[in-house]
Specification:
Strand order of the largest sheet of chain A: 1-11-10-6-7
Largest sheet of chain B: none
Number of strands of chain B: 0
CATH architecture of the largest domain in chain A: Sandwich
Largest sheet of chain A: 5 strands, mixed
Largest interface: A-B, 24 and 26 residues
Oligomer: heterodimer
Order of helices and strands of chain B: HHHHHHHHHHHHH
Shape of chain B: elongated
């Protein structure tokens, strides 16, 4: 009787493992691409490289980009400068709003309104064939900055998350004003 | 001592109340899958790859913060976990069975065995349905390791063990099972510890639930919402900012109550009532 139960248990385990493998095999993750500062990652036909990353206060941001309404006083803003090049023969549009800044288990997306402050009111993400643009994106560091800075993990700018993960490992150039 | 523990564990585990509690827990876990996971399957895009897939870590009952099943499961599990064993010490005491035991065994052994049985039975009832839920969800949705910044999926950085979650989500889930096992187990021990002060079976059964709600109220009152059991017992941690050492302090507090109350009961109560 014990052997029969063991047999049934083994069959159930095999069926479980088979189904588990099948479900996971349906979603294979593509190659993970990572690059450092000033190295190039191609995403949706556009070539990106990160020039620098700065942490600034909302006050400094307001003075620098002439808009005190985008962020609230006391907030810390991460400003990333990117160079985007369109090496194709067609007009492309950059998807800066999909970018995510990460450090350890903290992450936040790109601020929409800051895109216009920093890249001009007419900014629409369009890059003409052969054109190179220097663009800036801002991310609110909506957690305790001091705790974040002492974490060992690097700053990461993720361009795309799925199925192909593309990330820049970024070094912070300026932690204050 | 060993035979006493064996006897109490056998009484706690091999009874209809235990099977019923496990069955009810399993039914809730399966209902969550039927009503919250199965409908998601039709939106799962395995061929277009445009967005991060729905995963077992996203839809497992414990990690789904918006789920009413998660809210009620973790809240009422404390009652369900008390069903198999919480009142047996009280009924032993009322029926006179205790006196028979004390003629053959040391009082201390009986109470230690009772605490062990209450702890393990409650932990088992609280955790087995969670494991079942996760195992079945993992048969429907892929168990892709979640990474930081994939929209509304996952934990915020202020959550306890968030770094572990993003390194090994399954390890995080298992650690939470252990934490739940210990906390529900400890809360159930209160039924044994504080039975002296009650003269009603139902009141003894609901003691852990009463403690649970008092802790909810107290923590909210002192502005530590993250330490409400409603929040820290759920792997999704809906309230941010719980620290493990604070939870450990709550556990130590419960054990302390158990030790003090048991010592008091053994010295003052057994003989006189």
């Amino acid at each position: 009787m014990k052997k029969i139960y063991m047999g049934i248990a083994l069959v159930l385990l095999a069926l479980y493992a088979g189904r588990f493998w099948y479900v996971n095999a349906l979603f294979p993750q593509e190659e993970y691409i990572s690059a450092g500062m000033r190295e190039v990652i191609t995403n949706n036909g556009l070539e990106y490289n990160v020039e620098n990353l700065d942490l600034i206060s909302a006050e400094t941001y307001a003075a620098k980009y002439n808009n005190a309404n985008t962020f609230e006083t006391g907030e810390t803003i991460a400003v990333t400068t990117l160079k985007v090049k369109n090496n194709t023969a067609e007009v492309k549009r950059t998807n800066l709003l999909d970018f995510v800044l990460i450090k350890g288990s903290w992450s936040n997306g790109t601020d929409l309104y800051a895109l216009y402050d920093m890249n001009g009111d007419t900014f629409d993400g369009t890059i003409q064939p052969g054109e190179v643009q220097e663009l800036r994106i801002a991310t609110i560091v909506n957690t305790e900055v001091e705790k974040l800075l002492i974490k060992n993990s690097p700053w990461i700018l993720r361009l795309s998350g799925w199925p192909c993960r593309k990330e820049f490992i970024v070094s912070l150039e300026n932690t204050g004003d | 001592m060993r035979s006493c523990i064996k006897n109490e564990l056998s009484r706690a585990f091999k009874n209809r109340a235990m099977y019923t509690a496990l069955l009810i827990g399993a039914v809730i876990a399966m209902a969550q899958i039927l009503l919250e996971v199965v409908p998601v399957l039709e939106y799962q895009e395995s061929d277009t790859f445009t967005s991060f897939p729905h995963t077992s870590y996203e839809h497992y009952m414990g990690l789904k913060n918006g789920s009413m099943f998660a809210i009620y499961y973790y809240m009422f599990m404390v009652v369900l976990a008390a069903v198999p064993c919480a009142i047996t010490a009280y009924t032993d005491y009322k029926s006179g069975y205790l006196k028979q035991i004390f003629t053959r065994s040391h009082k201390k052994y009986y109470y230690i065995s009772k605490y062990i049985a209450a702890f393990f039975s409650a932990g088992t009832v609280a955790v087995i349905p969670q494991i079942l839920n996760f195992m079945v969800v993992a048969l429907m949705l892929p168990s892709i390791q979640p990474y930081v910044g994939i929209g509304y999926v996952g934990l915020l950085s202020e959550c306890m063990w968030a770094d572990i979650y993003y390194q090994n989500a399954f390890l995080y889930v298992m650690m939470y099972w252990v934490l739940d096992f210990v906390v529900y187990g400890c809360m159930n021990m209160l039924s044994v510890a504080l039975m002296w002060f009650f003269d009603n079976k139902f009141a003894v059964l609901l003691l852990p639930f009463f403690f649970y709600q008092m802790l909810n109220l107290g923590m909210q009152f002192v502005g530590k919402a993250a330490l409400m059991p409603d929040s820290f017992l759920r792997p999704g941690q809906p309230m941010l900012g719980a620290e493990f050492h604070e939870i450990l302090l709550i556990i130590v507090g419960i054990v302390f109550i158990c030790v003090i109350s048991c010592t008091y009961g053994m010295k003052k109560q057994d003989y006189y009532r």
